[in-house]
Amino acid sequence: MATTAVPSRFPRVPGALDKLASLPSRALTSTGKVSWFAIEAIKEIAHALRYYRKEIVRLIAETGMGAGAMAVVGGTVAIVGFVTLSAGSLIAIQGFASLGNIGVAAFTGFFAALANIRVVAPVVSGTALAATVGAGATAELGAMRISEEIDALRTWGIDPMEFLVLPRMIALVVMMPLLTLYADLIGIMGGAFIGVGMFDIAASQYIEQTLSAVTLTQFAIGLAKSVVFGMIIAVSGCFYGMRCGRSASAVGEAATRSVVSGIVFIVVADGVFAVITNALWI
Amino acid sequence: MSHEHPISVRDISVAYNSTRVLSGISFSVKRGEIFVVMGGSGSGKSTLMKTMVGLLPPEGGQVFYGTTSFWEAGDDLREDILRRIGILYQRGALWSSMTLAENVALPLEEFTGLTPGEIRDIVSFKLALVGLSGFENSYPSEISGGMMKRAALARAMALDPEILFFDEPSAGLDPVSARLLDELILELKENLKTTIIVITHDLESIFSIADNSIFLDSALRTMIASGNPKTLLEHSQDIRVRRFLTRGRIAPQVE
Questions:
Q1: What global pTM score does this model have?
Q2: Closest CA to A219 of A142, A122, A110
Q3: What residue of B is the nearest CA neighbor of A58?
Q4: B34/chain A closest Cα distance in angstroms
Q5: Starting at the edge strand that comes first in sequence, how are the strands of the sheet with B34-39 ordered?
Q6: Do A156 and B82 touch (CB under 8 A)?
Q7: Best A51, A53, A54, A147 residue to mutate vs chain B (most B CBs within 10 Å)
Q8: How many CB atoms lie within 10 A of CB B221?
């Protein structure tokens, strides 16, 4: 007797569960692949620094000021400035409300400055860069794969890791701390506008509180994070760009993956930093 | 590569994953001739070129540059061979973040000990050779498709290669630009004695430039004919070859 397969009207639960169960192993595998990719690139750093300095300088400028459409809307500096100004202001508002509940609203300046330089500036700048420069790198490399530009490099005997990946890594590692310093300043200013302008905290008191929070150690922690985040954004952006398929939809998919994994790795790295600095009492 | 046949292919087969896309390909290209790899869409022409220029390892068989088997050679020897060939890709493949002059200059900066002044002179000469004087500072996105291909040709010729590969040179060009590119290919053969391998299905181009050719069949995924295309048109008894060379109009003597 012939039987007819009836398509299920319900989601395939076992399949979805399988996928969920394999998530940790897939995450570990892709972390391993991305890490290996980074190691492969870093091995060639001496050659890249010697021969591709022009490309590195071009990419540093592009990372800081943006390129193409990004430059039209003011570049990366403007985006990081806008995002950290907003975040700094929000921290001051929330800090004033929360600290006010326990009667220490005067410490708003200290709280806002510490949160900004230690966590908010590096994480927010990193996230903004992952979504702009990181995604841009993925899309650019993906488009270069489609237009055979990467094949052209290979057949000249020019290693794409040296010519395309490493300059982007160096550019991001150089630019990220500078952007983070700038984000520190803008975030603290945002907090000050709110604390002094909106909540009538005395300017001298706010500045004093801020200066007591901004120690060299706190700055160093924020900058160390920014270097690691810069590396994460570059590796993630380039990894997905170099491996994306040769179609427009594949480029879009790769850009999405690069942003998602960049942000996830930034959050994980921030967590690792928090655990380490807590264990070291700094 | 001072061999009578600077490039020879011996029984090459190529597979993507487990799917075989080419097999049993053998031919030799004579020094200074224009050799055309022709066939319909999906017949594996570009795949064959990728295997010949080191982008796609073969499943079996060998590619010889002179007497050196490319895929059995060490990395240094392979790089040495690659620097003696030039490739014009289907879409030009100019590096989009660089000007035309920077595109042509990069191989010179990377592989020669020339001074910046000497490199500038060579770049100007190569761009003038393809009719692009004055466009040194233009970016690939600022020029037309035909100009892009000519600029890519200038880059392919940067290191004065002994062998030039052209992948679908007339693709995306208007008939006049395609004709000009064919004339440029003939000039390269006449003036520089360069060995030229052209991957194409453009019949006008095939009949005007080819000295010798092979025909790849998309159904059998192998070569089914070889020789001068005009001779093949007149004498081939294979209906698939005749159909291709007559744009699908089967010649009367075969029907």
A1: 0.81
A2: A122
A3: B97
A4: 21
A5: B85-88, B163-167, B195-200, B34-39, B212-217, B222-226
A6: yes
A7: A147
A8: 21
Closest by CA to B36, choosing from B163, B221, B226, is: B226
Rounded to an integer, what is the distance from CA B14 to the centroid of its chain?
Answer: 18
Cβ-based contacts of B94 with chain A (< 8 Å): 149
Residue B63: enclosing H or E segment and its boundaries? strand B60-65
Determine the residue of chain B that is closest to A67 in CA distance.
Answer: B97
- Is B107 touching A (CB cutoff 8 A)? yes
User: CB atoms < 10 A from the CB of B57, how many?
Assistant: 11
B164 touches chain A (CB under 8 A): no
- Compute φ and ψ for B227, nearest 5 degrees: 135, -175
Please name the residues in contact with A164: beta carbons below 8 A apart, sequence gap of 6 or more: A141, A144, A150, A153, A238, A242
ipTM score assigned to the predicted complex: 0.84
For B193-242, write each residue's pLDDT tens digit.
899 999 999 999 999 999 999 999 988 889 999 999 999 999 988 999 99
Tokens of A41: 């690139």
Closest Cα in chain A, distance from residue B90 (Å) = 8
- Give B153-179 pLDDT, tens digit per residue: 999 999 999 999 999 998 888 888 889
